[in-house]
Hints:
Blueprint: H1 2-24, H2 37-40, H3 47-50, H4 54-57, E1 60-64, E2 81-85, E3 93-95, E4 102-104, E5 112-115, H5 118-128, E6 131-135
Parallel strand pairs: 1-6
Antiparallel strand pairs: 1-2, 2-5, 3-4
Amino acid sequence: MLRVVRKQYAQRALAAARQMSSNSTSPGTAVTEVVHPAHQREPLPAEVISGAPSSLTKRTVRIYRPSNNPMQSGKNANLKWRLDFDALEKGDSWENPLMGWQSTADPMSPVRLDFTTKEDAIHFAEKQGWSHYVQEPQFRAIKPKSYKHNFVYRPGKIPMVHTK
């Protein structure tokens, strides 16, 4: 909602600046864009107004692109950037005595947030006051292969291929 309001304000200000420049100047003059003063500042940290305890606001998050599911052939899953929380250093996890499962007292451990761009995720982490690190995706290099390369002549010793 706030982005829509900011965008509408910027569009109206730019239209007004163009109108004023077209009325008062010659056609060769450049138009300067009007920027609202609130948009020039750094983002206000959310910890200032949220009232959350400092144990939740001073966290380290990882920003990365999730890998493809090896059981699926679609590429749509890795178009988003994900933000998740690192484990706490205090060791707030223990083994459940009944089932042997790993338990934790960290309420943020299962939280995963998805973003469309890396810049959006970084901006959100900075606004929340979280320190962050970014893991860039590693793409595999696909070598072109063809069935005909099995029968191409190669000088030297003939390779022996045993089928049994």
